[in-house]
Amino acid sequence: MKKQAGFTLIELIMVIVILGILAATALPKFSDLSGEARVAKIKAMQGSMQSAATMAHGMQLAQGLAAGSSVSVEGGTAVTMANGYPTANAAGIGAAVDTSSYDATGIATGKVAADAAHTSCSVTYVNANPPTYTLSTASADCS
Questions:
Q1: E-strand stretches of the chain
Q2: What DSSP letter does each residue of 6-41 carry, written as one string?
Q3: C or N: which end of the chain has fewer Cβ atoms within 10 Å?
Q4: Alpha-carbon span 118 to 106, nearest angstrom
Q5: Which residues on neighbouring strands pair with residue 115, listed in sequence order?
Q6: What tens digit of pLDDT does each residue of 36-60 get?
């Protein structure tokens, strides 16, 4: 007679039960990361704004232009400048950064939100020398 090797039905059921318990305890930890993702998205936009403003400022200095002169960035897009940095509107910082995956309806005042459903979760660019950036990530809208 051959000896058969394998798992019994009881052993298989116990493994499934243990995996179910592990999944049930781990699920809450991973279920709501959308708020953290929105905050990270807004922080990434702040970094993009900082880089774009610094690059535009550097281009203006390298070309020997006046502090209020527009500069041309990649693709020939003109970026309006004031105080040596992009203006806080669509022709300034809005032209210098890619806002295609954000809600940029407030770009006229330098504000970019995470998306249309979470407009309070945002970063605001203020033209100064140097520019300032205000993150609004503490609101319930970000979570």
A1: 71-72, 78-79, 81-82, 85-86, 111-115, 118-126, 132-136
A2: S--HHHHHHHHHHHHHHHHHHHHHHH--HHHHHHHH
A3: N
A4: 13
A5: 118
A6: 888 999 999 999 999 999 999 999 9
The token pair at 98 is: 């890619």
pLDDT digits (tens, 9 = 90+) for 94-106: 999 999 999 999 9
Beta-carbon contacts of 99 under 8 Å, excluding residues fewer than 6 positions away, are 45, 107, 112
Q: Which of 17, 63, 123, 61 is nearest to 139 (CA)?
A: 123
DSSP state of 109: G
The owner of tokens 């032209």 is 95
Tokens of 14: 């116990």
